[in-house]
User: What shape does this take?
Amino acid sequence: MSVAAARHVLPGFRLGMGYTILYLSLIVLLPLAAMVFKSTELTAAQFWAIASGERALASLRITFGASLLAAMINAVFGVLTAWVLVRYPFPGKRFVDALVDLPFALPTAVAGITLATLYAGNGWIGRYLEPLGVKVAFTPLGIVVALTFIGLPFVVRTLQPVIEDIEPELEEAAATLGATRWQTFARVLFPAMLPALLTGFTLALSRAIGEYGSVIFIAGNMPLISEITPLLIVSKLEQYDVAGATALAVVMLVISFVLLLAVNGLQWRLANSRRAGARA
Amino acid sequence: MLRSCRPLFAAIALAGTFAAVPQMASADVTLLNASYDVARDFYKDYNPLFQKYWKAKTGESVEVKQSHGGSSKQVRAVADGLEADVVTMNQSPDVDFLAEKGLVARDYTKKFPNNASPYTSTMVFIVRRGNPKGIHDWSDLGRSGIQVILPHPKTSGNGRYSYLGAWGYALRQPGGNDKTALEFVGRVLKNAPLFAAGGRDATTTFMQRKLGDVLVSFESEAELIAREFGRGEFEVVYPSQSILAEFPVAIVDRVVDKKGTRRQAQAYLDYLWSKEGQENAAQNYQRPRDPEVLKKYAAQFPAIRTFTVDEVFGSWSKAFAAHFRDGGSFDQIYQVK
Assistant: This one.
């Protein structure tokens, strides 16, 4: 077993690794390094003043809060959508399946304007929500709606292949062993889906944090209430304050990195405990 | 191996021919005009006028390419190496930025008449039909119970002009000073249920989503709204006085010197002040500088008392520093007490 693992079937580990590192450096590391470097034009005190300003903090709260909420909503409804798309045959299934990808393809500004029009007080959806006292467009809730929209495909698309691999026999076996429907879901199906779900959640979350185009059209952009951090970055650029903009970007980057690291750590622990469980 | 390469050579040769074709057919000189977003229609009409004029005068055919985008993004592109011969912007801070970088003459406002702005516009109010809330002047925008729609003053030129218009109005009232102006503009902004992403987004919000009682926008935008949404849907209200929006143009020295296109670039901008150029401005609902042309289109441009940014705020860069930079008056309004 260990011999097979050490000897790769395909040669070229060094070359492959070399290319990987070069590629990652050019595409990811170099721009990020340039950004961090640019922010060093500021003194530590200036950097801190920008990062801890009232509006910056409020925008970070709303950006990360709305992104987390949207990713969670997508985690729940993404599982449902993926499950239905894989397991149940129904007319127009291909069509619905293709629909899931649309948020990927649509220019984000178009998505933002469309959502704002739908959820505005006189929009198709907004007109029914407004009398109930629920305002969506031009409130923080609108930000969550936009971020949910753009994040959905990530969860569905990462889950679909995994659900396809879960054989229906597993459910039947669980049932013959006396598991209730809930137990079958919670003890058999969900653990199998969890790693992919976490991946999809992470992707949706990262996409939401950086989203600008769709959000600004529905957010209302009020300082301290519905201003997202990317908007503050753009408004700094409008003042030709590139260093200040990069300072905010670096703060976002660090928080995102910590978040992603935490999710990856969770995944890693999950994989380890399953391996341990399998051995036992 | 050799045989398999042949289609590749053929493809490269073919691509080469195609690439060469447009070059052969192209004009004697090509100018690139980097401009702001909504000037698209203006220059679409203006460029053929200039081409005809220049051809008749010199026999040279000039091709003018346009690049449009948010004005500060455009300017940054020019600073980063976009080879624009001329820039035609909607606010001087953008051209100032190029002047600081040494791409444009420091005294660019003196290189052409009228502060280098071939036409102007002003901020007006657009209200619902019949003006149900009785909005007649800036002071009404600060009344309680009025919803004001405007774009974000920190990210859009349109929003900045609206903001400075309100500020200048308050300042020019009897007993007006920076404190009363700050208080007044604060009240106006409290009446804003949202800040639109840009000028056009504000228009959509007001006209299509029917949000707000009054939209603050450029006079020229009112005509576009009429074409888009119908004339009966709204009314234009001219306040007692308003801010004069200037649209500076400049030659990008570094580019024209390198390309050898200074003569054509100069003529291209000069021609904006010709009768034809001024008529074109009026037809695009920008106020012409030429008094005769302005008179001819007087029905379109009601007389209004205006103040310039320089008159009230000293200069654009001072206005910018005092109001829109971090810690400026806009930020003070939104500071948590």
Summary: Chain B has two domains: 2-118+247-296, 121-245+304-333. Chain B touches chain A through 27 residues (CB under 8 Å). The CA atoms of residues 82 and 222 of chain B lie 33 Å apart. Chain B has 17 helices and twelve strands.
